[in-house]
Amino acid sequence: MSEERGPGPGAGTTSARPPMRDALVAAAFQLFLERGYEATTVDDIVTLAGVGRRSFFRYFPSKEDVVFPDHERSLKDMTAFLDADEDDDEPVARVCDAARLVLRMYTENPTFSVQRYRLTKSVPGLRAYELSVVWRYERAMAAYLRRRFAGWSDGDLRADVIAAAVVAAHNNALRSWLRSGGEGDAEAAVDHALEFVRQSWAPDGTESDAATRDDRDVVVLIAKRRTPMWRVVREIEATLDEA
Q1: CB 103 within 8 A of CB 170
Q2: Over the range 149-165, which residues count as b (16 or more CB within 10 Å of their CB) and which as e?
Q3: Which residues contact 219 (CB under 8 A, 6 or more apart)?
Q4: How far apart are CA 199 and CA 128, in angstroms?
Q5: Distance between CA atoms of 157 and 151, rounded to whole angstroms?
Q6: pLDDT per residue over 215-234, tens digit each?
């Protein structure tokens, strides 16, 4: 386990006491790094933070929640972003942008994010908790896509598969950045991964757009039964020249 100290949002502030929520996160991670996650109790955390147990549970329902203090806010922001889309927004691009909002939560404090990643890897219970959080992001994206693909013959299937692909691409790039200790450009790596998904699933826009393009390749000519074939051919050629 790393010997780095001082994780948590607001940990760099030295001129003023950080907000109580951030103080609890900082105290928790200091103890997790010193003693280990399992050996640290809520009582230990509140003692170091200088607050009471009631204050802890006002912000965090459990010890696991203090490890992921910003996911509820991030999920709420992402859902609001998806709900605020316009009908002409390309849905796959929209969920890719939603995933970028989640990335910002990690890049706002790389030191904290890297320490949390290392801690989560070492504690199976936290890994399971993290997976449940990721599943909630995926379900929010899928719900949005189901609305956008409503009426499509494969709408629900498409929504679920694309949501899973976006999450997988985002996490692949994110975890590579976390494994490196937060070195490199996380946003560029995630952009590259999400662009792969976007090109794979929305190269032509929407189903209706594709249908419109296909219709342009069909020529319908109405002629009288006794119209000479040469005239029919000439009319078709003239139509194709105009297309």
Answers
A1: yes
A2: beeeeebeebbbebbeb
A3: 236, 239, 240, 243
A4: 31
A5: 12
A6: 445 555 566 666 666 565 56
pLDDT tens, 191-220? 999 999 999 886 454 444 444 334 445 555
In the 8-state DSSP scheme, what is residue 12? T
The number of beta carbons lying within 10 Å of the beta carbon of residue 97 is 17
DSSP character at residue 10: T
Residue with tokens 């006002």: 58
Select from 63, 78, 107 the last residue of a domain. 63
Residue 3 φ/ψ, nearest 5 degrees: -100, 15
What is the rounded distance in angstroms from the CA atom of residue 145 to the CA atom of residue 160? 8
Q: Is residue 88 part of a domain?
A: yes
What span, in angstroms and rounded, lies between the C-alpha atoms of 139 and 162? 11
Q: What is the pTM of this model?
A: 0.73
Q: Considering only 29-38, 128-137, 209-218, which range has the smallest mean pLDDT? A: 209-218
Q: Is the domain of 114 the same as that of 186?
A: yes
Compute the distance between CA of residue 96 and CA of residue 149 in angstroms, rounded to an integer. Answer: 16
With tokens 């996490």, the residue in question is 171
Torsion region of 181: left, alpha or beta (phi above 0 gives left; psi -120 to 50 gives alpha)? left
Q: In one letter, which amino acid is 159?
A: A
Examine the domain organization and report whether 131 and 225 are in the same domain: no
- Residue 88 banded pLDDT, cuts 50, 70, 90: confident
Among residues of the chain, what percentage have pLDDT more than 70? 75
Q: Has residue 229 been placed in a domain?
A: yes
**Can you give the CATH number for the domain in which 39 is found?**
1.10.10.60
Task: Give the residue carrying structure tokens 């890719």.
Answer: 96
